[in-house]
Amino acid sequence: MFETERFIIRPYTIKDAENLLHTIGTYEVYITTYGIPHPCDLKYAKKWIKGVINNAVKDKSYEYAITGKEDGQYLGNVGLINIDIASRKCDISYFVNPEYWGCGIATEAASELIGYAFNVMNINRVGGSCMEHNIASARVMEKLSMKYEGTMRDYFIKNNRYVNLRCYSILQDEFKALFKGKTILRLHEL
């Protein structure tokens, strides 16, 4: 479990399924994510949570529910995925309920997990990607001081159309030089 200034970032339980569905069931989240179908139902949300829990047990990925510190409201998801301990790399992922877009939730939550990846897991590279049209997600990665690496053209198909994927990363030595123990978010507030 993690705690930021505004949020509790905690493991999922099956009790989160309805709140998760309220977020991933939106068209806005569907068009900005790779693998979530639309429409989806409660059965899918429960299966997704079971997959998240199973991946954590196998150390493949760690995905967490972002909840409000004051009210416990489910706000979205943040995770370290595609973990490769041998190569000391992983990717950051996140999605937020569209009702709360523009509030800095993804940036604050992802900042906490990136710090954990570098400072505790001793990861060397944290990558991230977003669909080219997802300007908000690209902006989150830029706020996290991730460097733009390039665009993979026609990387996958979404809604029967090819989609380009923007790629970003930050390395451990860059993180440590930039932040010297501060979280990314607090540095951006200075």
What does this structure look like?
The protein has 190 residues and is of the alpha+beta class. It is built from seven helices and eight strands; from the N terminus they run ββαααβββαβαββαα. The chain has helices at 17-24, 27-30, 42-57, 105-119, 135-143, 172-179, 184-189; strands at residues 2-3, 7-11, 62-68, 74-84, 89-96, 125-131, 147-158, 161-171. An eight-stranded mixed sheet has the order 1-2-3-4-5-6-8-7, with helices on both faces. A hairpin with a 2-residue loop joins β7 (147-158) and β8. It is globular. Mean pLDDT is 94; it is low at 186-190.
**Shape verdict:** globular
- Largest beta-sheet details: 8 strands, mixed
**Termini distance?**
26 Å
Give the mean pLDDT.
Answer: 94
Q: What is the ordering of alpha helices and beta strands?
A: EEHHHEEEHEHEEHH
Percentage of residues assigned to helices: 25-40%
**CA-atom Rg in angstroms:** 16 Å
Number of helices: 7
**Sequence stretches where pLDDT stays below 50 over 5 or more residues:** 186-190
